[in-house]
Design a protein that fits this description.
The chain is about 30% helix and about 25% strand. By secondary structure, it is α/β, with parallel strands linked by helices. The protein binds NADPH dihydro-nicotinamide-adenine-dinucleotide phosphate (NDP).
């Protein structure tokens, strides 16, 4: 086969595969290069196995609730090795599907590490190929530089491959990965301490979600060691010790480093190919994902824009449609919905109350209740919903929820927000009853007006 391609994609994760398939559908001759398993972070060592672990953790609470609903004898013991075997089989199955999708699309797969040689040439597995266009979609990897000693800790990669549950787990960080795994491992039965330097977890999310998440995690028995900087991690005879700036020491049998991720740029030959990095070490790109080098584009986490799978996929497809489909397309990074798969889960789209209030007057609508299913079984968990509404034109600017099914509910409402729905549109939408989601269309009066030129809500 010839080694000249219309497009060479480096990285067969969600973004790279989406771009390769879309370009091939437009008639391009495409090669995709992958050094690890096809499917990338999301499918192999991220979103998918994480969610399968979250489902496993959910049974403990389901068993508890079942008793409140009249069931007896509902109990069980979690065997992590059985879950690990089933998870491995599922990721193998999904990897097979990804490989088949590439074959069906007519995309050639080269397994090995790619190195850019300049002028559209790429070395991979002892072969040199040429792409008229190159797309870098190499993703990211856990960062270890936040604290001395962190490289001794597990990352989410190793945690998802555990065959035995740690008895006492210390999670370092307060972002997506930290809170999700703290919540999941607690659900499975570990004693969990979540150590983060801020006063609340999930910086960047709406404050009302953050405070409620902290309360809910704490109520589930997770120790929140917050508000203190961390100094370093050491190994001890019995496990690990994390020293904090106030002199306190947190100990555990196992530690998860969840202090962020860094773009995978090393060893790609980017400098030789003239591809510039930004200050954060990510590939610098313009709004069309074009790098500083002619003929080279980059998408997904390696560009460190909005590091979410659907965004990488959208960026990949936009690139392919623009380059090969004569359909110039750009991704709007402003309104990206996202979810945090804690228990209770969080989901959010649009502006937080604080961000919106900096732009002008906003009306805040809230609902806070004990959901029927939990309340019946005697549980105290609550659901909280918030709409952030433009005080001048009633447009819904932000939708936020913490509670059961939040990700599923907010995904649907994200359509309304993307379409520019107003509070009046929500009001004239009839409820589906009895659901939790209906509360979003039943909020009558604002609880407060905030922001510049704010006047008290009536
Ligand atoms: P995040 O950027 O979300 O969080 C990193 C955390 O590490 C923050 O709490 C940060 O604290 C903390 N941190 C960083 N440096 C230090 C330090 N020197 N000392 C103490 N704490 C420190 O990264 P994650 O690794 O959790 O996730 C990476 C990305 O993956 C996310 O941005 C997200 O886009 C994606 N992701 C999405 C998921 C989803 O959609 N459900 C799930 C998992 C990941 P501080 O806030 O104070 O800076």
């Amino acid at each position: 086969m010839s080694d000249a391609f219309d497009l060479v994609v480096i990285g067969a994760g969600s973004g790279g595969v989406a771009a390769a398939r879309r370009a091939a559908a437009h008639g391009a001759r495409v090669l995709i290069v992958e050094a690890d398993r096809v499917g990338g972070t999301c499918v192999i060592r991220g979103c998918v196995p994480k969610k399968l672990m979250m489902y496993a953790a959910g049974f403990a609470q389901a068993f508890d609730e079942a008793r409140g609903y009249g069931w007896t004898g509902v109990t069980g013991t979690f065997e992590m090795s059985r879950w690990a075997d089933a998870k491995a089989a599922e990721t193998r199955r999904l990897e097979g599907i990804y490989r088949q999708m590439l074959t069906d699309a007519g995309v050639e797969l080269a397994e090995g590490r790619a190195k850019l040689l300049g002028g559209g040439a790429v070395a991979v597995g002892g072969r040199t190929v040429r792409g008229q266009r190159l797309l870098i979609a190499t993703g990211g990897a856990p960062a270890h530089a936040a604290l001395p000693g962190l490289s001794m800790a597990m990352t989410s990669n190793e945690l998802l491959d555990l065959r035995e549950l740690p008895r006492r787990l210390l999670v370092v960080g307060g972002g997506y990965i930290a809170v999700e795994f703290a919540s999941i491992l607690r659900g499975l039965g570990s004693e969990v301490t979540l150590a983060y330097r801020g006063t609340l977890p999930l910086r960047g999310f709406d404050t009302d979600l953050r405070t409620r998440l902290a309360t809910a995690l704490s109520a589930r028995g997770i120790v929140l060691a917050s508000g203190v900087d961390m100094v370093g991690l050491e190994r001890t005879s019995s496990g690990f010790a994390l020293t904090r700036a106030d002199g306190s020491v947190l100990t555990a049998d196992a530690v998860l480093n969840a202090t962020g991720r860094r773009p995978n740029t090393a060893g790609l030959g980017l400098e030789d190919a003239g591809v510039a990095l930004n200050a954060a070490g990510a590939i610098a790109v313009d709004a069309d994902s074009r790098s500083s080098a002619d003929g080279i584009w980059a998408i997904g986490d390696v560009t460190d824009r909005v590091n979410l799978t659907p965004v990488a996929i959208a960026e990949g497809r936009a690139f392919a449609d623009s380059a090969f489909g004569r359909r110039p397309t750009r991704v709007d990074h402003r309104t990206v919905a996202s979810a945090v798969f804690t228990d209770p889960p969080i989901a959010t789209v649009g502006l937080s109350e604080a961000d919106a209030s900096r732009l002008g007057p906003v009306d805040i609508y809230e609902s806070d209740f004990r959901p029927m299913k939990t309340a019946f079984a005697g549980g105290n968990a609550r659901t909280y919903m918030k709409l952030v509404v433009d005080g001048l034109n009633e447009r819904v600017l932000g939708i936020h929820m913490i509670g059961t099914d939040a990700p599923e509910i907010v995904q649907s409402l994200a359509v309304a927000l993307t379409c520019g729905a107003t509070k009046r549109d929500f009001d004239r939408t009839l409820a589906v009853h009895p659901t939790a989601a209906e509360e979003f269309v039943l909020m009558r009066e604002p609880v407060r007006r905030v922001g510049s030129a704010a006047v008290p809500a009536v």
